[in-house]
Amino acid sequence: MWWSVLPQLIGAVLLLLAPGFLVAWGLRYRGFDALALSPALSVGVIVIASTVSPFLHVRFNLLPVAVVAVVLGGIAWFVSRSRPRAGTVPGSGLWRSAAPFVAGLLAFVVIGARVMQAIGAPEHFSQTYDAVFHLNSVKYALDTGNASSLTIGDMTGGGFYPAGWNAVATLVASTFGLDVPTAVNLTSVILGAVFWPLGCLLAARWTIGRSAEVALAVGVACASLGAFPLLMMDFGVLYPNLLSISLLPSSVALAAAILRVSPDWVPRDLPAVLALLLSLAGLVVAHPTTFMAWLTWTAPMVGFLSWKTIKLRKRNLLRVWHPRFTVPLISYCVAFVILWAFLRPPPDASFWGPYHTAPQALGEAIVFSPLDLPAAWLVAPLALLGLWAAARQLRYRWLAAVFLIFTGLFVVVSGFPISRIRSILTGVWYNDSYRIAALLPLVAVLLAAVGVEWICHNPYIRQWFKRVLLRSDSRTLPSGLRTALQRGAAFVLVALAVLLGQVGGVNKEVAQASSKYALTPNSPLVSSDELHLIQRLPADIPQNAILLGNPYTGASLSYALGDRRSAQLHILSYVSPDLQEIYDRLANVTGDPDVCRAVRSEHSYYVLDFGLTEVHGGNHTPAGLLHLDQNPGVKLVDSQGPAKLYKITACGDN
Fold first, then answer.
1. What share of the chain is helix, strand, coil (3-state, %, to 5)?
2. 115 prior amide bond cis, ω within 30
3. Which residue, among 577, 580, 551, has the nearest Cα to 565 in the 3D structure?
4. Within 10 Å of residue 554's Cβ, how many Cβ atoms?
5. How far apart, in whole angstroms, are the C-alpha atoms of residue 150 and residue 557?
6. What is the DSSP letter of 634?
7. CA max distance for the chain
8. Which of 126, 273, 313, 496 lies 20 to 30 Å from 639, alpha-carbon distance?
9. Which parts of the chain register pLDDT below 50?
């Protein structure tokens, strides 16, 4: 099944890395750094292209993305032409240089396999509430050639919508001629198995170090947590959060470089600032709440830089309070407070309550197993060791502070009762435990890398390892054989770590997610019978037909799955007065001329009846769509099991 789309998957990986790689190359990044920066910069390029395309009256596809990439790459080259190449460090051995690539490939294989296992097959789709909007939005963008955040909300009668994910998935679909579910699923694989590990590796490389041990630890750790990326493909479905959180590590790495948290060899100049601005453009349009998570990550970095600056200049108070230092610091604090207060969803969208007690939530955060997932037996011990090591080392204390902040936020959202204080602290993330839970893995991965670094650089542990591995034969074994034994032991250790990392939380999340993508006669959104009926729609009704139906039953997916537009493309789409007239009074269509007038106005002569089963188990079927089999003004056109397609005949021919 997945083998049939392997060429498209490989092509989509190259497609989504190439624009950012061109810009990174222009900024004089080289080697692994250029590759790891590519996802964040690519999304920045894509959202700029999708935003400007409507103003230029150009369809959004590969062409405007390529043009924007070339333009930004040229600007990057001009700005950075005198900058030394960054990313290749003098004196790096072959294995140290290759280790991040190996770790990235390892993570790609492991995460990609688990994501594919969770989805099941390329043509499957999420049987969840938000899938209606997300799948239809990709189809809408393909039909209109418009994936701009400024206008894609018109699909549902709304306004601005952060459509970064929609633009990325649309680009994949349009470039390779894929159907909507397959394009969405390939995008999910790439975000989880390529974007996420590359970002984690870059963040670790730029904040902890470039040792091979750190790289391999990050490659294994980022594939060993159930809370991301699988959780975002399970709950919601939250595809925009999947994209934005996969970009978060790269943005954190760039902030660390600029705020002097990174090692000295990481460049902290104008090209780094430009790279951060472009990555943040993609992050904001992917999902603003993750931009707020990035802002939360930077607060301890700013505090660390301020403390270090004050400590260095404490003998000269005039230098401490120099405007060059105080103005940026005050500006950052003011911007943080303003954004925290205003860049948040409306209160009616932040209705989620706690699901645990505070002690239970604290325990889950400490072992990185939120939302009743089993403990992360591989990552949690290493991360807690890393937390201990970070608290003891000045250069990592900011990371310990990040752990405390996100642990506190998770405890508040998951264990505190609904209150004003809770909304102030966690309303940025809809007061939703799932969205904050998905932010914990990045903290865990970096702390685990600190823990591994501490182990590898502890002289007593290193000596013990050599004695256990080589024992008394160390003097008689050739150096080449000793090296081979050490590499073999490392290979076995990594293999065991990969296997251990999949036990518990990852396995449970794969099982939970796979149940959301399974296509069965009882699927909660679109059953197998309903899908078969949807797939026959092009043969049953005209291309310009507008279908009526209860969107909560999945009838609205006739657009993304059957190429026939529904009157509501999202469950919460705007309902016009004429459409409401049909919903309320279709049962009286034979005797009420106002109903036929509304039918003609909406051009809605067909009704999809998927019964009363709704995705969340509610009851929202309009009165006019009930008992259609007893309505003399409609005629059965097609059926598959309990799924039925009716035509309104009382209002004349369409």
1. 70, 5, 30
2. no
3. 551
4. 29
5. 23
6. E
7. 101
8. 126
9. 472-474
Strands 546-548 and 606-609, bridge-based pairing: parallel
What's the confidence (pLDDT) of residue 16? 98
Structure tokens at 648: 């309104």
Residue 86: its pLDDT value, please? 66
Q: Exposed e or buried b for every residue in 146-171, given b needs 16+ CB within 10 A?
A: bbbbebbbebbeeeebbbbbbbbbbb
C-alpha 615/C-alpha 101 separation (Å) is: 42
Structure tokens at 319: 């230098």
The letter for the amino acid at 474 is S
Q: Residues 6 or more apart from 258 whose CB is under 8 A from it?
A: 268, 272, 273, 276
Q: Cα torsion for 543, 545, 550, 551, to the nearest 10°? A: 50
3-state secondary structure of 137: helix
Residue 82's pLDDT is 75
Q: Is the dihedral of CA 213, 191, 530, 527 positive or negative?
A: positive
SS (H, E, C) 300-361: HHHHHHHHHHHHHHCCCHHHHCCHHHHHHHHHHHHHHHHHHHHCCCCHHHCCCCCCCCHHHH
To the question of pTM greater than 0.90 for the whole model, the response is: yes
Tokens of 98: 């290759």
Both structure tokens of 54: 């409507």
Bond prior to 162 in cis (omega within 30° of 0): no
